């Protein structure tokens, strides 16, 4: 079940009105973020003194949580247009293109795009797929690997490429900038450093995308879970 969160105000606006902690408590209560132990105590206990507050929600923007046989959780913030675009990928088998840093991915987009497009077409023919739709995995950007630096340019450069924008998915174990838009999935759990399955993922692997069951399934020897036909 998607959870709607406020998207009409910036963090700066919330900070000025001293609403950051109430918003944090709101997200905890709606299970958009999980409760965690910290050096100062568990988040829910630290929020116990914070006054309850309801926030306006917008139908245009929502967090969707996905799972699969490569990871336990993956999040995307999708507005109405992006959600409709995701429907175009439902039930399709996508070609995984694996990168082990954001900088590697950006370098390929900026300097070796023609080579990338040729490789996608070669993989399409080899796998006998009707379309060469990629899912770009940017791994090794998580908390244990790099402290989860804010990622902005990966999605920004991708969205500028007319051959790839809206025609590919971006998946990472890192975290995105608040300005990120497009079909970008992040905050993967477990992250690359803790997952043998992700460490075995390689370019050319096939990934089936199921929007309605919220699943990314790595195809294994031609056997995979069926996709649902209804939302």
> If you average the pLDDT, what whole number results?
81
Strand percentage: 15-25%
Q: How would you spell out the order of helices and strands?
A: EHHHEEHEHHEHEHEEEHEE
Oligomer: single chain
Radius of gyration: 19 Å
Structural class: alpha/beta
Q: Percent helix among the residues?
A: 25-40%
Please summarize the sheet with the most strands.
Answer: 8 strands, mixed, barrel
Give the neighbour order of strands across the main sheet: 2-3-9-7-5-4-10-11
Distance between the termini: 11 Å
How many helices? The count is 9
**Tally of DSSP β-strands:** 11
CA-based shape = elongated
Would you identify the regions where 5 or more consecutive residues have pLDDT less than 50?
Answer: 1-9, 221-231
Give an overview in words.
Helix 5 (102-111) crosses helix 6 (113-127) and helix 5 (102-111) packs parallel to helix 8 (153-159). The chain is α/β, with parallel strands linked by helices and 231 residues long. The protein contains 9 helices and 11 strands.
How would you describe this structure in keywords?
single chain; 231 residues; alpha/beta; eight-stranded mixed barrel; 9 helices; disordered N terminus
Outline the fold blueprint:
Elements: E1 3-4, H1 11-16, H2 20-29, H3 43-46, E2 61-68, E3 73-79, H4 80-87, E4 93-99, H5 102-111, H6 113-127, E5 134-138, H7 143-146, E6 150-151, H8 153-159, E7 169-172, E8 175-176, E9 184-189, H9 196-200, E10 206-210, E11 215-218
Parallel strand pairs: 2-11, 4-5, 5-7, 6-8, 7-9
Antiparallel strand pairs: 1-2, 2-3, 3-9, 4-10, 10-11
Short description:
30% of the residues lie in helices and 23% in strands.
């Amino acid at each position: 079940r998607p959870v709607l969160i406020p998207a009409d105000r910036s963090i700066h606006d919330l900070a000025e009105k001293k609403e950051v902690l109430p918003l944090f408590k709101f997200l905890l209560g709606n299970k958009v973020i999980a409760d965690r132990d910290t050096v100062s105590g568990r988040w829910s206990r630290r929020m116990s003194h914070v006054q309850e507050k309801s926030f306006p929600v917008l139908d245009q923007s929502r967090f969707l949580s996905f799972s699969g046989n490569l990871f336990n959780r993956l999040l995307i913030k999708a507005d109405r247009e992006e959600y409709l675009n995701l429907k175009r990928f439902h039930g399709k088998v996508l070609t995984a293109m694996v990168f082990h840093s954001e900088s590697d991915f950006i370098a390929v987009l900026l300097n070796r795009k023609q080579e990338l497009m040729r490789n996608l077409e070669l993989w399409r023919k080899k796998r006998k797929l009707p379309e060469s739709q990629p899912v770009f995995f940017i791994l090794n950007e998580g908390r244990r690997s790099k402290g989860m630096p804010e990622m902005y340019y990966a999605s920004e450069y991708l969205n500028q490429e007319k051959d790839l924008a809206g025609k590919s998915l971006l998946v990472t174990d890192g975290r995105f900038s608040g300005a990120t838009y497009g079909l970008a999935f992040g905050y993967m759990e477990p992250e690359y450093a803790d997952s043998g399955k992700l460490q075995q993922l390689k370019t050319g692997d096939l990934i089936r995308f199921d929007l309605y069951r919220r699943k990314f399934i790595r195809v294994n020897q031609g056997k995979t879970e069926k996709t649902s036909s209804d939302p």
